[in-house]
Amino acid sequence: MRRRWTTALAMIFAFTLVLALAGPAPAASPITTSIYTADPAALVVGDTMYLYTGHDEAAPGGTNFVMRDWHVFSSTDATTWTDHGARLSLSNLPWAGADAWAGEVEPRGGKYYWYVPVNGNGAGWMDIGVAVGDSPLGPFTDAKGGPLISDSTPNSSPLNIDPTVFTDDDGQAYIYWGSYYGLRAAKLKPDMINLDGPVITPAGVSNFWEAPWMFKRNGTYYLAYAANDSGCSQPGYACIRYATATSPLGPWTHRGVVLDQVSSTTNHPAIVEFKGQWYMVYHNAAAPGGGNFRRSVTLDKLYWNADGTMQKVVQTSGGGGGQPPSGTNHALTATASTSYVSPWETLGAINDGYVPASSADHSHGAYGNWNHQGTEWIEYRWTTAKSVGKVATYWFDDDQGIDLPASCKVQYWNGSAYVDVPGQSACGVAANTYNVTTFTPVSTTRLRLSITSRTGYSTGVLEWMAL
Ligand code: FUB
């Protein structure tokens, strides 16, 4: 079993080297940069959100997990997080030897049960144990004195990791877990430390790899999980897919991808409602010095469609996706116009001051001219002349009919005609960043961006700054 994971990790490392050359995706701000954290589980108690995380301690360049304990973080605004330290460690589970992997906490009867996968030093590799505490912060002690689930559990997963526990409205608790494409589920007894009945293999969960997360909303059961099929992620990486069901043990119907691959090879979801806002909590490799074994937990807002499906989460930049250049942005006081905007798009998005997370970030609207092709323009006008010597353009790319342009150029109104601004530098067409074009400053009441599409595509802009 261990040899298979070692092989898998070696493959992941190789893929990482390749993909590092392609550049990481934009990344959100981590909950902490003091330590590396992974595998979040979220729990809301009163006005506080708790995150139970793993703790990556691999050395820089490390090629394997080094995980010895789990931390608890709390927040009352989902923005500022307090690290309460290592509230559970391998030493609290005397039968466990290593590998403090992805756990989850479930409350019941005033107690908090922390389900954790560990190397149990027994037959096989990973087991799932349970610790219990009297508060969300513990202290937590071993609740069972040995594994709840191991390789000797009938019909257990090929790799017994990543437990998620869910309690239905009738008080019945369920545990789901697994990896190596082996999702498993079982009822828990009211004592929360024993299985109640057989282990089942849930049906209909497409491309399950690991990291299940179970919850219920408006009477529908949701199961999010890491998948690593080529339909959603590059080799060695994972996306988060989800399925729904009308009963807690399924059968499940696959609904789509809710989180694209992240900058770490592993991906791990926790989906939770807190103070009226839903969040996707996950990890990536975006923190300074981060990597596949030095991950960081982060979170982004999650939005619902009216039919109960989840919109794909936009991974916010927090600095990773390109920051706007400094200076006075005259675009904010300009009136925008264009040669053409699609009726369903928003020209006003280009000068609303929003900092996009990526070129796919449509959350604040976008200018788009689908299905026009060739050259179109956007323009700013001011009632009094402005001195402008730089523009910054953040392109919109929906991976459908709108793509990055072939070329662009900046023009201004010289009093009688539009002419190119003098001495302009390259008009960049890169995705996921502000493309800055500098030129000899002009004093003008009208500035224009002329955009020429690639063959077969239209173009779009998320933000256009005039500085
Ligand atoms: O952190 C170790 C393992 O990596 C977790 O158990 C998986 O979910 C993956 O994130």
Write up this protein.
By secondary structure, the chain is mainly β. The chain folds into 2 domains: 158 residues, Sandwich (Jelly Rolls); 267 residues, Glycosyl hydrolase domain, family 43 (Tachylectin-2, Chain A). 4% of the residues lie in helices and 40% in strands. The protein has 1 helix and 25 strands. The strands form 6 sheets. Strands 19, 20, 21, 22, 23, 24 and 25 form a 7-stranded antiparallel β-sheet that branches. The longest helix is centred in the first third of the chain and has 21 residues. The relative contact order is 0.11. It binds beta-L-arabinofuranose (FUB). The site of beta-L-arabinofuranose has 12 residues, from strand 1 and strand 12. Keywords: Carbohydrate metabolism, Glycosidase, Hydrolase, Polysaccharide degradation, Signal, Xylan degradation. One of its GO terms (molecular function) is hydrolase activity. Belongs to the glycosyl hydrolase 43 family.
